[in-house]
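Box 3.1 A note on notation
Throughout this textbook, protein chains are presented in two layers. The first layer is the amino acid sequence; the second is a token string describing backbone geometry. Keep the layers aligned when reading.
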Amino acid sequence: MQDIPPGSLISVKTQFGSKRCAFQIAGDAELYCEGSTFHRQSIRRVRLEHPNASAVLGAVVGTGIGIGVGVAVTNNSRDAETRVYDPAAYGILGGIVLGMIMHRIPVVHGKVVYQR
């Protein structure tokens, strides 16, 4: 764990649960994280996190879902502009919303840097 740059976002899994935090420093007996201290004996796994990768994936998936919903909603419209612009607006909105959600709840994890 000594090779993790300070400030890196990590997730620490212990016998009591998991916590995401910004790494500060690791000693022989403890790992110090933004707002938390973990005793090495209670740590089961430390993994680097990549919230931006999850956000990008969420934005792509959300855009696709939004466009699909927009096409379905405007399917019976006779107005050509509505059939073009509404799916685009739904796509943008869907991309923003799902990107923000997946930034907070990462599904794309980095490599495991410590496991016991």
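The chain has two domains: 9-49, 51-104. Residues 80-104 form the longest helix (25 residues).
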